[in-house]
Amino acid sequence: MMENNYNLVRPEVVEYIETQIFPRYSAANGHGLDHIKNVIRRSLDFAKRINDGEIKTTAKDFKNLPAELKPNKKRKVNYDLCFVVAAFHDLGRDKNNKLHHLVSAGYLLNDDFMAEHFSRAELRVMADAIMDHRASNELEPVTIYGKIVSSADRDTDCHDIMRRAYAYHLHLHPERGEEEAIDRTIEKICKKFAGPEAYGAKKMYFENPAFEEMLAEFTRLSEDRELFRAEMKRLI
Fold first, then answer.
1. Model confidence pLDDT, tens digit, residues 38-78
2. Can you list the alpha helix ranges (DSSP code H) found in the chain?
3. Is 29 in contact with 168 (CB distance < 8 Å)?
4. CB neighbours of residue 47 within 10 Å
5. CB 82 within 8 A of CB 27
6. Do 125 and 189 meet the contact criterion of CB atoms below 8 Å apart?
7. What span, in angstroms and rounded, lies between the C-alpha atoms of 155 and 153?
8. Are residues 132 and 102 in contact, defined by beta-carbon separation less than 8 angstroms?
9. Are 182 and 166 in contact (CB under 8 A)?
10. Which of 5, 59, 104, 223 has the fewest Cβ atoms within 10 Å of its own Cβ atom?
């Protein structure tokens, strides 16, 4: 299993996120704490692979960063920023699901602890990354931090995606029965992950074989809706 790499982040930042931010997430809408921790883990993994040279980058990847966040000999990306962006990215769903990326960025920018521990330039970069993370966003993220959280936000386990998508649909539309909820969930998943035009498939910015396997599986299921429905029923 992938390590969480929390040791790469300042202890005081980890403690604040774990005690003040994590408790604000609810599991009811499919974007709960388990998802957030997975996004954090994947974000730090991408960041470490970038800093270790395992993921190749170019000057273009850092062109929109302020001078204080440009790559240096010690590291190319800041682990603290990756951790915070991942921790905050879905926090705004408690207020507005459709605009949660904007609400989440607002929470970050108005957080006293963050203002005390990060510079204004760092806060701006993190807010931009949070606003850029959505799979439905047609534009490429402004900075590499947006690419990291966007990529980390892409789950690779088909069953987890199906369960979360179903739970999210019921959270938004509790009046719908199981059959309709399953059909709507399948439509959403197919639009997002099945076939070459799937918008979610375009939001992985680093090589990730597990993600490619997930896309292939959803494409296969999309071609046999009865099989897809049977698999959904089994999971829920």
1. 999 999 999 999 999 999 999 999 999 999 999 998 889 99
2. 11-16, 33-51, 79-88, 100-109, 112-117, 120-132, 144-152, 158-172, 178-193, 209-222, 225-235
3. yes
4. 28
5. no
6. no
7. 6
8. no
9. yes
10. 59
Non-local (6+) Cβ contacts of 83 within 8 A are: 6, 8, 9, 13, 14, 17, 40, 43, 44
- The two tokens of residue 143 are 């900075």
Which long-range CB contacts under 8 A does 197-204 form with residues at least 24 apart?
A: 199/135, 199/136, 200/135, 200/154, 203/135, 203/137, 203/150, 203/151, 203/153, 203/154, 204/150, 204/151, 204/154
Evaluate whether 126 touches 118 at the Cβ level (below 8 Å). Answer: yes
Residue 59 and residue 70 in contact, taking contact as beta carbons nearer than 8 Å: no
CA-based nearest residue to 165, from 192, 133, 199, 189: 189
What is the mean predicted confidence (pLDDT) over 32-36? 88
pTM assigned to the model: 0.84
Say which residue the tokens 């302020």 belong to.
66
Torsion from C-alpha of 89, 199, 79, 112, nearest 10 degrees: -20
Q: Following CA atoms 205, 210, 212, 213 in sequence, which dihedral angle do they give, to the nearest 10 degrees?
A: -170
Q: What local confidence, expressed as pLDDT, does residue 28 receive?
A: 47
The CB density around residue 158, as the number of other CB atoms within 10 Å, is 19
Rounded to 5°, the CA angle 84-34-78 comes to 20
Compute φ and ψ for 14, nearest 5 degrees. Answer: -60, -45
DSSP state of 140: P
Give pLDDT, residue 136: 57
